[in-house]
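[audit] Reproducing an earlier prediction to check determinism. Same input, same settings, fresh worker. If the tokens differ from the archived copy the diff job will pick it up downstream; this log only records the rerun itself.
[audit] input (659 residues):
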Amino acid sequence: MIHSFSLFSEFDSSLFKAGKHFKLYEKLGSHIVEHEGTQGVYFAVWAPNAHHVSVIGNFNRWQGDHHALAPRQDGTGIWEGFIPGLGQGEIYKYKIHSNFWNQVLEKADPFAFFSEVAPNTASMVWDLKYTWKDKKWLSARPEKNALDKPFSVYEVHIGSWKRKTEDGYRSLHYSELAEDLTAYIKEMGFTHVEFMPVMEHPFFGSWGYQSTGYFAPSSRYGTPQDFMNLVDTLHQNGIGVILDWVPSHFPTDAFSLSNFDGTALYEHDNLEEGFHPDWKSFIFNYGRNEVRSFLISSAMFWCDLYHADGLRVDAVASMLYRDYSRKEGEWRPNIFGGRENLEAISFLREMNETLYANFEGIQTIAEESTAFSGVSRPTYIGGLGFGMKWMMGWMNDTLKFFKENPLFRRYHHGMISFSLVYAFSENFMLPLSHDEVVHGKGPLIDRMPGDEWQRFANLRTMYGYMFTHPGTNLLFMGGEFGQTNEWNHDHQLNWNLLNYAPNKGVSAYIKALNKLYTSEPAMYEKGFDATGFEWIEHNDYTNSVVTYLRKGKNPAEAIVVACNLTPVPRDSYRIGLPATAELVEVLNSDADEFWGSNYKTQAVITVEEAPAHGRTHSAVVTIPPLSTVIWKIKIALPAPAEPEAGKVKTTSKAKSKKA
């Protein structure tokens, strides 16, 4: 029997219909409540085109005749009711009788907080109470997560980072990751972890990018509280958490969002707008107010109840254009006849405005691969409002360049410097993500030419160039130690490689890069500001060498970087510098500890008054083969003047006393 009861007020209804209700997770779905002295569960679901909706589960033998929900009489299309006696862990679905074609559908709850372990698909009643211990992190987050602070992100697929080989080769649980992953990230020096979608998904091989549970972490790895504990533990160890989030499309599985009440409720009702040809999935109808409320509520949910420090929004490019991956005649233009998806653009702006207004110190990051202007610019000047955008052009050019034989790199030199032409048009994050090591592309080490030593030297050189390039950084798991197999979600990383010197050297180098990156303000303070970067020489294609400066807010603290992109050492290489100073070597990818050749360089180099590269001063340096060398400029201050003979030098304090 269902009792009449509601968590929805008239104000909630008006917000929902207007597309302005951004905490729907507090109202829709299933909630353990007490009504008239009896504990039970309140259910509420949006199904405007149904004529009968009931809750089914083990408690009524999955029969739809016993627990019918009542429609709200306010035009929202919401059905609701209270079932006494139900509680934590109860599994259920909604049985929906559609007004169209006599369809009878059994659907999982779009707002469920927890689900059965796949391949089972029922939703589960779950309370999200948890005692957080990350207050210190959250209070410091606005400072730690700011755009002038370091972001070195470790991208992780939870199901394949590490597995329990002695326990059926299963993935680690959230509770195990809280211990193992936290310790590893802290040891390696990454500032943030980015989880590929943890939101519930039926097909493991989709890596989470075919989401069905927009309010539920995957039950494959534990309970919601287990995942909260993972985030909490990371925070307590000073590590930020970014979650992949997929508002661009959703799968066609019959139990989920598609054709939810017998109609195209969350999607469009035509293939030209509503179906994605690449992923064979449905596209959200961003012009429908209730769908906007659903999606923005989902984004809010992960920052609110799971304390996420940021969302990386997947496939933004596919959202921005109606003709994305479509041929002529396969798409519908917007109301002005253009290809831009105006509704999606409006949605993204509102989503970013809402998140930044509600959660201090968070960041949103767009995976966007086109030249769409202003992705990471404020909405008040016409931008989309993201904090950062993936720099896909840099990634493509860099991997293409390093794949070239060093003998011929001089003919492709522009690839390595071109990114600086547009580096400050957006707040860019440099990604070497999971997409670069799948679908036959092989691991990053396989892109590097030459013998074994040269391949690993190339990889270290590329990482040095990446970490010293303006912007922030993201590296997919396994890349930090030179994974030698293409990533396979059914297998853990090849951790045994850390027993071998070349891989151990890459791991030590990434650790050293992270330490330098996070400790030197010149490496991050002006990562999105053109005044924080200066070429020394970008056109030395003959030697395949690039040299540049990184600068922070303190003009006396600057970093000098030289990348030698060939296996030929560059002895007596002169570089122009801005002032009289000394260069102190702080990191060299060719060092013995990184499995380099340990080619002899000078620890300290004097800058002399000799013009080079348009500057009055310069220094002669040695750049080892296939290496990135980083120096810190130590400004030479003039020696204090000696007092004249017969006179005593007095301090300002002494002068003050005498006065």
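[audit] rerun output stored. Observation attached for the diff report: The longest strand covers residues 38-46.
[audit] end
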